[in-house]
Amino acid sequence: MRQLLLILLVVALASCMKVSDLTAETEYQMRDAGLLNHSEIKRANNWRLQADSYIYISQGLFIPLGHASARPNIVAEETFNAFVEYFPRLSLAPVPMGFEEALQAARHSGAHYLLYTRFAQGNDRIGNWDEFKTRKDSGARLGVDRGAIHLMLVEVGNGYLVDTANIRNRGGFLTFHNKKPEDMIRPPLRNYARRLLGLNP
Predict the structure, then answer these.
(1) Model pTM above 0.90
(2) Same domain, 111 and 23
(3) What is the percent of the chain with per-residue pLDDT over 70, rounded to a whole number?
Protein backbone atom coordinates (compact mmCIF):
# COMPACT_ATOMS: atom_id res chain seq x y z
CA MET A 1 0.00 0.00 0.00
CA ARG A 2 2.80 2.40 0.90
CA GLN A 3 4.57 1.65 -2.37
CA LEU A 4 1.41 2.40 -4.32
CA LEU A 5 0.97 5.73 -2.54
CA LEU A 6 4.62 6.58 -3.15
CA ILE A 7 4.28 5.79 -6.86
CA LEU A 8 1.13 7.92 -7.12
CA LEU A 9 2.89 10.80 -5.35
CA VAL A 10 5.88 10.63 -7.69
CA VAL A 11 3.62 10.54 -10.77
CA ALA A 12 1.59 13.49 -9.46
CA LEU A 13 4.73 15.55 -8.77
CA ALA A 14 6.22 14.66 -12.14
CA SER A 15 3.10 15.88 -13.93
CA CYS A 16 3.03 19.21 -12.09
CA MET A 17 4.10 22.44 -13.76
CA LYS A 18 7.48 23.97 -13.03
CA VAL A 19 7.40 26.76 -10.47
CA SER A 20 8.30 29.34 -13.13
CA ASP A 21 5.49 28.12 -15.40
CA LEU A 22 3.04 28.15 -12.50
CA THR A 23 4.08 31.71 -11.61
CA ALA A 24 3.71 32.91 -15.22
CA GLU A 25 0.27 31.31 -15.54
CA THR A 26 -0.90 32.83 -12.24
CA GLU A 27 0.34 36.27 -13.33
CA TYR A 28 -1.44 35.91 -16.69
CA GLN A 29 -4.73 34.98 -14.98
CA MET A 30 -4.43 37.94 -12.58
CA ARG A 31 -3.81 40.30 -15.50
CA ASP A 32 -6.76 38.86 -17.40
CA ALA A 33 -8.98 39.27 -14.33
CA GLY A 34 -8.00 42.95 -14.04
CA LEU A 35 -6.02 42.68 -10.82
CA LEU A 36 -2.68 43.53 -12.49
CA ASN A 37 -1.81 45.72 -15.48
CA HIS A 38 -2.91 44.17 -18.75
CA SER A 39 -1.74 44.89 -22.32
CA GLU A 40 -2.97 43.66 -25.68
CA ILE A 41 -0.87 43.92 -28.85
CA LYS A 42 -2.46 43.63 -32.28
CA ARG A 43 -0.05 43.50 -35.23
CA ALA A 44 -0.83 43.76 -38.93
CA ASN A 45 2.09 41.52 -39.96
CA ASN A 46 4.53 39.05 -38.43
CA TRP A 47 7.56 40.89 -39.80
CA ARG A 48 10.85 39.99 -38.15
CA LEU A 49 14.03 42.03 -37.86
CA GLN A 50 17.62 40.98 -37.48
CA ALA A 51 19.20 41.87 -34.15
CA ASP A 52 21.73 44.18 -35.81
CA SER A 53 19.03 46.28 -37.53
CA TYR A 54 19.50 50.01 -36.99
CA ILE A 55 16.20 51.53 -35.81
CA TYR A 56 15.35 55.22 -35.55
CA ILE A 57 12.60 55.84 -32.98
CA SER A 58 10.37 58.89 -33.20
CA GLN A 59 7.05 60.05 -31.79
CA GLY A 60 4.38 61.96 -33.67
CA LEU A 61 3.04 65.38 -32.77
CA PHE A 62 -0.37 63.97 -31.80
CA ILE A 63 -1.56 64.90 -28.29
CA PRO A 64 -3.20 61.85 -26.67
CA LEU A 65 -6.96 62.10 -26.41
CA GLY A 66 -8.00 62.44 -22.80
CA HIS A 67 -4.46 62.90 -21.49
CA ALA A 68 -3.03 66.17 -22.76
CA SER A 69 -0.67 66.44 -19.76
CA ALA A 70 1.50 63.50 -20.92
CA ARG A 71 5.14 64.38 -21.64
CA PRO A 72 5.45 65.11 -25.38
CA ASN A 73 8.11 62.48 -26.18
CA ILE A 74 7.24 59.86 -23.55
CA VAL A 75 6.32 57.02 -25.94
CA ALA A 76 9.51 57.40 -27.98
CA GLU A 77 11.59 57.49 -24.79
CA GLU A 78 9.91 54.40 -23.34
CA THR A 79 10.23 52.61 -26.69
CA PHE A 80 13.95 53.32 -26.72
CA ASN A 81 14.27 52.04 -23.14
CA ALA A 82 12.38 48.86 -24.05
CA PHE A 83 14.16 48.19 -27.36
CA VAL A 84 17.69 48.82 -26.10
CA GLU A 85 17.52 45.45 -24.31
CA TYR A 86 17.23 43.67 -27.67
CA PHE A 87 18.54 45.98 -30.41
CA PRO A 88 22.01 47.47 -29.90
CA ARG A 89 21.72 49.95 -32.78
CA LEU A 90 19.13 52.59 -31.95
CA SER A 91 18.64 56.32 -32.28
CA LEU A 92 16.04 58.39 -30.47
CA ALA A 93 14.52 61.56 -31.90
CA PRO A 94 14.95 64.26 -29.22
CA VAL A 95 11.54 65.84 -29.88
CA PRO A 96 8.24 64.79 -31.49
CA MET A 97 8.03 65.37 -35.24
CA GLY A 98 5.81 64.76 -38.24
CA PHE A 99 6.11 61.52 -40.18
CA GLU A 100 7.96 62.94 -43.20
CA GLU A 101 10.36 64.82 -40.95
CA ALA A 102 11.00 61.65 -38.93
CA LEU A 103 11.59 59.63 -42.10
CA GLN A 104 14.11 62.20 -43.33
CA ALA A 105 15.86 62.19 -39.94
CA ALA A 106 16.02 58.38 -40.05
CA ARG A 107 17.54 58.50 -43.55
CA HIS A 108 20.04 61.13 -42.47
CA SER A 109 21.14 58.94 -39.55
CA GLY A 110 21.60 55.92 -41.83
CA ALA A 111 18.93 53.83 -40.07
CA HIS A 112 17.41 50.74 -41.68
CA TYR A 113 14.00 51.21 -40.08
CA LEU A 114 11.89 54.00 -38.63
CA LEU A 115 9.67 53.08 -35.70
CA TYR A 116 7.11 55.87 -35.62
CA THR A 117 5.03 55.98 -32.45
CA ARG A 118 1.90 57.79 -31.38
CA PHE A 119 0.25 58.12 -27.97
CA ALA A 120 -3.31 57.80 -29.25
CA GLN A 121 -5.31 57.86 -26.05
CA GLY A 122 -4.90 58.08 -22.29
CA ASN A 123 -7.36 57.96 -19.45
CA ASP A 124 -5.72 59.08 -16.21
CA ARG A 125 -7.94 58.08 -13.29
CA ILE A 126 -7.54 58.96 -9.63
CA GLY A 127 -4.51 57.08 -8.25
CA ASN A 128 -3.99 58.49 -4.74
CA TRP A 129 -5.66 60.49 -1.99
CA ASP A 130 -4.09 63.82 -3.02
CA GLU A 131 -5.54 63.51 -6.52
CA PHE A 132 -8.90 62.58 -5.03
CA LYS A 133 -8.93 65.77 -2.92
CA THR A 134 -7.76 68.13 -5.68
CA ARG A 135 -9.88 66.97 -8.62
CA LYS A 136 -13.39 68.34 -8.71
CA ASP A 137 -14.66 65.44 -10.83
CA SER A 138 -13.09 62.80 -8.57
CA GLY A 139 -16.31 60.83 -8.17
CA ALA A 140 -16.50 60.20 -11.91
CA ARG A 141 -12.80 59.44 -12.33
CA LEU A 142 -12.08 56.73 -9.79
CA GLY A 143 -10.72 53.56 -11.32
CA VAL A 144 -7.85 52.15 -13.33
CA ASP A 145 -5.87 53.97 -16.03
CA ARG A 146 -6.16 53.07 -19.70
CA GLY A 147 -4.14 53.97 -22.76
CA ALA A 148 -3.61 53.22 -26.44
CA ILE A 149 -0.42 53.41 -28.52
CA HIS A 150 -0.02 53.10 -32.29
CA LEU A 151 3.24 51.98 -33.93
CA MET A 152 4.39 52.09 -37.54
CA LEU A 153 7.52 50.23 -38.63
CA VAL A 154 8.80 51.65 -41.91
CA GLU A 155 11.70 50.55 -44.10
CA VAL A 156 13.72 53.73 -44.46
CA GLY A 157 15.23 53.00 -47.89
CA ASN A 158 11.94 52.80 -49.76
CA GLY A 159 9.39 54.10 -47.24
CA TYR A 160 7.59 50.74 -47.24
CA LEU A 161 5.32 50.12 -44.25
CA VAL A 162 6.32 46.66 -43.02
CA ASP A 163 4.27 46.48 -39.82
CA THR A 164 1.73 48.36 -37.74
CA ALA A 165 0.76 47.61 -34.18
CA ASN A 166 -1.92 48.79 -31.80
CA ILE A 167 -1.23 48.41 -28.07
CA ARG A 168 -4.02 48.81 -25.54
CA ASN A 169 -3.14 49.08 -21.86
CA ARG A 170 -5.38 48.70 -18.84
CA GLY A 171 -4.32 49.23 -15.24
CA GLY A 172 -4.98 46.72 -12.50
CA PHE A 173 -6.92 47.18 -9.27
CA LEU A 174 -3.87 46.05 -7.29
CA THR A 175 -1.41 48.32 -9.15
CA PHE A 176 -3.23 51.61 -9.84
CA HIS A 177 -1.87 53.53 -6.81
CA ASN A 178 0.21 56.58 -7.88
CA LYS A 179 0.21 55.45 -11.52
CA LYS A 180 -0.36 57.23 -14.83
CA PRO A 181 -1.22 55.82 -18.29
CA GLU A 182 2.40 56.34 -19.38
CA ASP A 183 3.62 54.05 -16.58
CA MET A 184 2.17 51.07 -18.49
CA ILE A 185 3.95 51.76 -21.78
CA ARG A 186 7.31 50.01 -21.45
CA PRO A 187 6.32 46.34 -20.76
CA PRO A 188 4.21 45.86 -23.92
CA LEU A 189 6.86 47.67 -25.99
CA ARG A 190 9.46 45.22 -24.63
CA ASN A 191 7.06 42.45 -25.67
CA TYR A 192 6.81 43.97 -29.17
CA ALA A 193 10.60 44.14 -29.45
CA ARG A 194 10.80 40.43 -28.59
CA ARG A 195 8.17 39.63 -31.22
CA LEU A 196 10.15 41.53 -33.84
CA LEU A 197 13.08 39.24 -33.10
CA GLY A 198 10.87 36.14 -33.23
CA LEU A 199 11.23 35.48 -29.51
CA ASN A 200 8.41 34.32 -27.31
CA PRO A 201 6.62 37.25 -25.65
Answers:
(1) no
(2) no
(3) 62
